[in-house]
Amino acid sequence: MKRLKWPSWLPIDPYILLLLGTVGLAALLPARGTGAEVASGASTAAIAFLFFLYGARLSTREAMDGVRHWRLHITVLACTFVLFPLLGLAARGLEPVLLDHSLYTGLLFLTLVPSTVQSSIAFTSMARGNVPAAICAGSFSSLVGIVLTPLLAAALLGGTGGGFSADSLLKIVLQLLVPFLAGQLLRRWIGGFVARHKKVLGYVDRASILLVVYTAFSEGMVQGIWHQVSPLRLGGLLAVEAVLLAVMLAVTWYGSKALGFNREDRIAIQFAGSKKSLASGLPMASVLFGAHASLAVLPLMLFHQMQLMVCAVIAKRRSRDPEAGPEPSLSRDPAEASRIAVGTGTRSG
Predict the structure, then answer these.
(1) Dihedral (C-alpha) 23, 45, 140, 107: value to the nearest 10 degrees?
(2) Distance between CA 261 and CA 138 in Å, rounded?
(3) Cβ atoms 241, 228 nearer than 8 A
(4) What is the pLDDT of residue 104?
(5) Which helix (H) or strand (E) is 159 found in, with range?
(6) Are 241 and 107 in contact (CB under 8 A)?
(7) In terms of C-beta density within 10 A (0-12 exposed, 13-18 middle, 19 or more buried), how is residue 207 classed?
(8) Angle between helices 198-223 and 33-57 (to 10 degrees)
(9) How far is the C-alpha of 19 from the C-alpha of 212, rounded, in Å?
(10) How much of the chain exceeds pLDDT 70, in percent?
């Protein structure tokens, strides 16, 4: 029997549809009472297991091999954790005209999240850029983000971040950092098993993210916070995010040229430095914001889909550049790249 494939002309990844379906399920049948407690406990365990797998997958040797590209990595980290947050802070001037306080908080949190790994690899390969640099840059960003994102959230969101506090920072350490370090320590013994069962564990990753989304949006429905969001506000959020993505794509491309990087490195910098990780951001938001996580992750979910669609088009155009190098090993089909990019795990989108 011929395997069914997702139509290449559809711009929305099937996993995004699953995420939207999960949001719809939470809206129709939110977890309440004992069910909410069970869902919350399961979500907490899923988040810990998710970051344990992140740690078990991250190759220390692979990361060390990329140290020689330190200028490129510093550039990507600066875009991810300096320029993005500065733009997020600048967007405060749009409150309350285009964004209300809850959506602005989510937008600011979006700018603090680490970069993607898997989507950076997929699009860099499609555009015939420096794939090893994209692997290392994304891995460094994910690793640094586990520590830096909560610290930035504490500094920039403070007590107004939908319940963020010192307790949230402790939860980040216990639910994210400790499992991640445990995965790194046990990688020597379980790394082979994780690699052999990568596909199955990938489904576990995705199921964990769906559970986190369901729990967060269920809490939001029970709290009644969705009544605060109007279609006009959502339209304003999409417009702001479109501008944010366009600015970052332009800065990473032309800024890296001004810094003297070659074409292949500029491609890696553009795709690694302009995107944000849904797989890392959702669990962090669930821990940081609690019942307010549904609105906090909405900007990230919208930005994630937007960046996949836009970067797929850019990568396809880059692959046709006259100065492009040899054809890469990964698919150049934008739909296929989007399916690769949306995958979770340490190399996640």
Answers:
(1) 30
(2) 18
(3) no
(4) 92
(5) none
(6) yes
(7) middle
(8) 140
(9) 10
(10) 78
First to last CA, the chain: 31
Kindly state the average pLDDT of the residues 307-316: 86
- Tally Cβ neighbours within 10 Å of residue 340: 21
The beta strands (E) that lie in 41-196 are given as none
- Interior/surface letters 227-238, b for 16+ CB within 10 angstroms, e for the rest: eebeeebeebbe
349 secondary structure, DSSP code: -
DSSP state of 160: G
Q: Which two tokens stand for residue 38?
A: 């069970």
Tokens for 325?
A: 């190098």
Of 235-239, 257-261, 335-339, the range with the lowest mean pLDDT is 335-339
pLDDT above 70 for 77: yes
Q: Is the bond into 7 cis (omega within 30 degrees of 0)? A: no
Q: Which helix (H) or strand (E) holds 20?
A: helix 14-28
Q: How far is it, in rounded angstroms, from Cα 285 to Cα 291?
A: 10
Model confidence pLDDT, tens digit, residues 251-306: 999 999 999 999 999 999 999 999 998 878 888 887 777 666 777 888 988 898 78
pLDDT of residue 130: 87
Closest CA relative to residue 314, chosen from 274, 262, 261: 274
At 85-134, the pLDDT tens digits run: 999 999 999 888 888 888 899 999 999 999 987 778 788 888 888 887 88
